[in-house]
Design a protein that fits this description.
16 strands; 6-stranded mixed β-sheet; Alcohol acetyltransferase; CAT-like_dom_sf; Atf2/Sli1-like; Alcohol_O-acetyltransferase; 5-stranded mixed β-sheet; alpha+beta; about 30% helix
Amino acid sequence: MSPAAEPTPLRRLSHIEHFSSTRHHIGIYRCVTVTCRYQANASSAAQAQLDTAKLYPALATVVAAQPMLRVGILGQDTNKAHFSHLKEVDLRNHVSFKTLACESAEKYEALVAEQQGWHHDQLWPDLETRPPWRLAVLQPRPDINQEIQSVDLVFAFHHSLMDGTSGRRFHELLLAALNDPSQPSCSSPDAPHLLSFPNAPKLPEAQEDVIPFTNSIPYVAKTLWTELGPDMLKPRKIVPWHGKAIDFSIPHKTRVRPVDIPHEVIGSLLKACREHSTTLTGLFHALTLVSYARNLATDEAKSFAASTPINLRPYFGPNADPELKDLLRCLITSFSHEYSAEAVAAIRRLEADLDALIWQNAKRIKTELVERLATLPKDDINGLLKYVGDWFDFWEKKKGKTRSESWEVSNIGVLPRPPPDATWAITRLLFTNGSMVAGPALGVNIASAEKGILTAGISWQDTVVPDELVDSLERDLKAYTQRLHETGKFGA
């Protein structure tokens, strides 16, 4: 290693960043992935070859502007890990190109999902000296891609660096750089892959330093009792369906199943959501609930629970540096929802009014989230992370326990479309969590491109959730949304 590449310590990881760094070290959560389909403008397709000559300068611009893309992690095997300043970043360690052998567009889509799962399963090497992120450029064989000039860019990153919202933002920044005709050259013309950063970056602050968490005594007491109190002294709790129990010995294989919903169908869904006072997030929770309830046996799944990640960026306190607010970073919390045995039984009744129940549950989720957003950052679980003295012991105690949630719905929103004359546009986003070994059994991850399609990326750990249940969920999400678009109702 050259002296320029020697890492030097920067700030200590925040509590939420330690949450992920320790998970990575023991192998139970490895990365977040946001894949975007970059489509060339028809009038400039011949000049829009995305090779290193075009990609490296654009990527260098993004890396230079975003400190979290040029740091490593020191001491990930400890509870006192620090980010490290890396004076050099070699893009060859982060960028790859791959042509997928496929005989049809459908096979190509399946291989992209398979590649996304593969990225979720990889541990980050040389964390101290290599920033933990990758950009893989995927494309089909030329004869499959002759009609639409497009490539898929898989952006995989360590969750300590940033969250899903930042993953989407990374693609926005890269797209802007690729479309910038005045794009500057790399810092070293003789070695365009090698980026130099001699001065230590000013990192975005730790989450707890910019989000003014306040926790009431009743909330702290209740939460600590729930986590630490002896089970024999607690009332018996109905355990929701959760797939297999938490088991670190199950092979870490992430499965990914994209569900693409056409733009015209999304228009119908948004209109219906407004009419029923809910959101797409609430609707996808409700559709997942109906699918689970109708495809799992009553004696196997009497009730469910789910969670929704919440973006904390609207809750910056006065201590937040205005210059750092828009940087890629991890600013996130989560909120849980419960579906009682009575609510699930109502869906299973043969005479059930499916439409009424879907909208009722979708509206309830929206109402719960609105109420929670109105009280944040008060009484939030992230405000209690400081009480976790040993994260490794925290995870060890999860072994063999039942999962708290049956699924998670995460929505990172819409990626804006560039001007019509831009060389590149993004038409599809596939956003997924990796295997949540100690978390929800399955993720439904929503993202869309403006004027493009919406994709719900289903992800789960192989064998933790039955394949048949995922097959049913995929079919139901497609069928219910298409039926609403065509008939105005979910039910047949």
